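ok so for the tutorial part 2 we go from a plain amino acid sequence to predicted structure tokens. step 1 is just haveing the sequence, like this:
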Amino acid sequence: MTLFAAQEERILQLNALDEIQKSALQHTESIQNQCMKWHDLYVRDKSFKQGDWALLYDYRYKDNLGKLQTRWLGPYEIVETFPNGVVRLPTIDHVRIKLLVNSHRLRLYCKPLSKDDFLRQFSTAPHAEIPAATDDALAVTTPS
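step 2 — the prediction. this is what the tokens look like for a chain of 144 residues:
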């Protein structure tokens, strides 16, 4: 092989390498776009406001997945929210510094209803009429 033929072969190899790199970059970009679309489709935005109740995720149990261990602390009443997604929670003694937490570590907590609230909720709901049982419906037919 002559020197000129070797140089041409090397230039062709470098051009092929550039083509491979371009196609790999395009493939990576398309995969990242697909992942971003999937993420935006299935991830819900959490929004908390002052006065809401939330549970705080405890990272201590991240690796030790015990069957009956709870991973959520609280509930805490949200004291303040910030535009960047940070939430201020009260500490136990309510006097020391307030606890700042990323909202991704929180889950909205719905307080359980008391018995009075439960009855009040169903007393205001429209009732469905239940037909009264008749003797004909309760009678057992015997085969003849």
